[in-house]
């Protein structure tokens, strides 16, 4: 009896996992098709969307550039096709300025990106923000090109396992 229950539990867990994996693969494919301006990747059941270097923000600014608005609209539309996901918006800066200033700016960048998603009808209850300052650089901060790459927002798309 116990063995049968364990087999049933493992089978249920496997099917649950497969369902969510398939959902996230579909989310990945839809985002990849919708947002040419961003790098879209998937690892296990997590999709990550990163807009190219210097696409979103100027130096010292948390204002999203107007030329990115159409891409954000397509991004938002794709997210709205997948309501069982949640979005973690991580803001980053380069190393110019103090740590406190950069933490504040990175949080403002994440909040600005969230506001743009909400403006485009993504439910704000699905979106969480986190300002990380100059942590986790993707390029060297010794060159202007590297600093531009580090001024970014990453969107981490996760399946809401409550659904």
TrEMBL record:
It is found in: Cell outer membrane. Transmembrane segments: none annotated. InterPro entries: Bact_OuterMem_StrucFunc, OMP_bac, OmpA-like, OmpA-like_sf. Residues 1-22 form the signal peptide. Keywords: Cell outer membrane, Membrane, Signal. GO terms for cellular component: cell outer membrane. Residues 44-161 form the OmpA-like domain. The keyword Zinc does not apply. Pfam families: OmpA. This is OmpA-like domain-containing protein.
């Amino acid at each position: 009896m116990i063995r049968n229950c364990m087999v049933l539990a493992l089978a249920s867990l496997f099917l649950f996992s497969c369902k969510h994996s398939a959902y996230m693969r579909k989310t990945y494919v839809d985002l990849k098709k919708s947002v040419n301006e961003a790098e879209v990747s998937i690892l296990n059941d997590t999709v990550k969307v990163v807009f190219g270097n210097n696409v979103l923000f100027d130096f010292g600014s948390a204002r999203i550039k107007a030329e990115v608005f159409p891409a954000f609209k397509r991004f938002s539309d794709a997210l709205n096709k997948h309501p069982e996901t949640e979005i973690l918006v991580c803001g980053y800066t380069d190393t110019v300025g103090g740590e406190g200033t950069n933490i504040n700016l990175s949080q403002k960048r994440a909040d600005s990106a969230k506001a743009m998603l909400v403006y485009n009808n993504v439910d704000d209850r699905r979106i969480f923000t986190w300002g990380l300052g100059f942590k986790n650089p993707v390029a060297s901060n010794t060159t202007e090109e590297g600093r531009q790459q580090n001024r970014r927002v990453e969107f981490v798309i996760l399946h809401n396992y409550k659904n």
